[in-house]
């Protein structure tokens, strides 16, 4: 991203470092002199739906690397490269922001946005709820139904469902969630402000069938919600 905006990442010989996360380990300098002139005076607000730092056990490589096919050795290499990158940026722009919540989003794009471009990160769902006037829409509501493909630990780290549930709970409106798969326990759901979760796999264990033909299953879940809340 920063390269596309005019920055240069150079190795010890003054050549551009290789593409990809592992290539960052060779970076010896960060040249921002050609950063796009239209960025000056622009307020950059990034919608971000996770709170992972850039590096470490909860960082970009450890959290998202395995999702993209990285093995344990790859994760270690990528995290080492990101650590080096963070050191380089801190020495260039003065200020270490690798631990900022959301710095690890999108493989470290969150970090680059705040540390190199001077942007700010906002929870994506918080920004969206403001844009659609969610608080005003809650007035007089008896129930909020929200959902996503999979309810898991990442849901609790600032994703849309958690944001919706938090806003609804603050307004005193109960929340239920509809999902494809749910791996959260009842206590975790309640902690997030979700009274109950309804998963397609509760009705059809075969995930492939859930994906191929979800509408009948969603209708059944809708009926269950109505019956449970009568």
For this structure, the CATH topology of the largest domain is Glycerate kinase, domain 2
Instruction: Report helical residue fraction.
Output: 25-40%
Main sheet makeup = 3 strands, parallel
The mean pLDDT is: 93
Report the portion of residues in β strands: 5-15%
Unreliably modeled segments: none
CATH superfamily of the largest domain: Glycerate kinase, domain 2
SS content category: alpha/beta
In short, what is this structure?
With 230 residues, this protein is an alpha/beta fold. The chain has ten helices and seven strands.
How would you describe this protein?
This protein has 230 residues and is α/β, with parallel strands linked by helices. It has two domains: 8-124, Alpha-Beta Complex (Glycerate kinase, domain 2); 140-228, Rossmann fold, CATH 3.40.50. 39% of the residues lie in helices and 15% in strands. The protein has helices spanning 60-64, 72-93, 109-115, 124-132, 134-138, 160-170, 186-191, 200-203, 207-212, 215-228; strands at residues 8-10, 29-31, 45-48, 120-123, 144-151, 175-182, 196-199. Strand 6, helix 7 and strand 7 form a beta-alpha-beta unit. The longest helix is centred in the middle third of the chain and has 22 residues, at 72-93. 32% of the residues are buried. The mean pLDDT is 93.
Give the arrangement of secondary structure elements.
Layout: E1 8-10, E2 29-31, E3 45-48, H1 60-64, H2 72-93, H3 109-115, E4 120-123, H4 124-132, H5 134-138, E5 144-151, H6 160-170, E6 175-182, H7 186-191, E7 196-199, H8 200-203, H9 207-212, H10 215-228
Helix pairs in contact: 4-6
